[in-house]
Amino acid sequence: MKYIYLLGIGGIGMSALARYYNHAGYRVAGYDRTPSKLTSELESEGISIHFEDNVNLIPEEFRTNPDETFVIYTPAVPKELGEFQFILNGGFNMCKRSKALGVIASEKKTLAVAGTHGKTTTSTLLAHIFTNSGKGCTAFLGGISKNYHTNLLLSNSEILVAEADEFDRSFLQLFPDSAVITSTDADHLDIYSNHAHIKEAFNEFASQVKENGHLIVKKGVEINAKLASNVHVYSYAYDTPADFYASEIKISGTGFFTFNLNHPGGVINNCKVGIPGWVNVENAVAASAIALLNGIGIEALKKALESFSGVERRFDIRLNTPECAYIDDYAHHPKEIAAAISSMRNIFPGRRLTAIFQPHLFSRTRDFAEDFAESLSALDELILLDIYPARELPLEGVTSKIIFDKVTIDRKVLITKGELMQYLSTIEIDTLISFGAGDIDRFIEPITNYLKERYNV
Hints:
Shape: globular
CATH class of the largest domain: Alpha Beta
Distance between the termini: 52 Å
Number of helices: 15
Radius of gyration: 22 Å
Largest sheet: 10 strands, mixed
Number of strands: 21
Strand content: 15-25%
């Protein structure tokens, strides 16, 4: 193969593959529906991208040499897409993103982090621990690391860190040497149909941990997998006794935590996490567990935890002053939103909390409307936007209003994206958080700049 073509190249997982193959010397190109900051970065790295479903825009050497062109596609790409049909019927070798990652991972010692939430921060922190320690790793991340400003780390090390995505059962292409499972909550019911099927998939993933490997599971998460021989199973928790857990947890006035890390070999005192929020102590415990079990030393671990800068769009503090604070978060599941709000209350006690929420997917909105409403009712004020459809067509009767009507707080408004910036100018803002996995990220910079100007920062 000489050429790598990616359908849906702008996705976070697809863009990491594009960077990997581009670095390996292949000619790389791709299609995506809309331009973004990420596609602009890929183009600046020499990757050709177009945004119109037009077979003639596929580079000629790719289009006319199917025997030399390997095509990778994301399951989010609709099968009726013209380019997809051309490739499908044109004699090209093609596979899903998850299969391509599985092939790459099979050649490395793979450390995988799975879970319906928590996996992006935990896997990015794990990759940082190995990189910062000097051991190094190749890492395929589900977000942009703020330490390295990329979603792909490259190294000659035998270690590969992978975010193991449960969407479309993608993580079943991985056979890790060590794995963390952070959560198995109901999600992606458009794929799995019910919670039982999600749990079955996580059990299957756990069963794929290699012989003599490690499986680290959050305490309280039920895994009943048939494991390979001599797989060592550990539990971890935030602050309740487990194989790995935090104790003596202290929070500073700015929301940063110190804690002692309890592990099977003893206690590591005075650990510090470089990003705020109690949920990131829990993520740090999980990342530390898999790192310690794979040869990272205590001092290297402590240094890496403290120097971790986090992940873009994961409890990402954009502004923090006594007058106004703004945080952006990718949360798009009720439990993620509840955890983020809890962390906000912890960091900013007594302050008034306003959130902007853009629901993601009609099916998720339908399936979790009551749970979303319950989580969002913990706010002081809610700005609710229309549903971001992503890969779905509208469902009859499913709009943001089915969440809105169930939210119990008085200060709430349902508006369009086009009305957002104007509406923000009409309200008092103390602490603000934006939630969502859709295109709400296009508003992060405008909101940040507006608040800086408004509050003379």
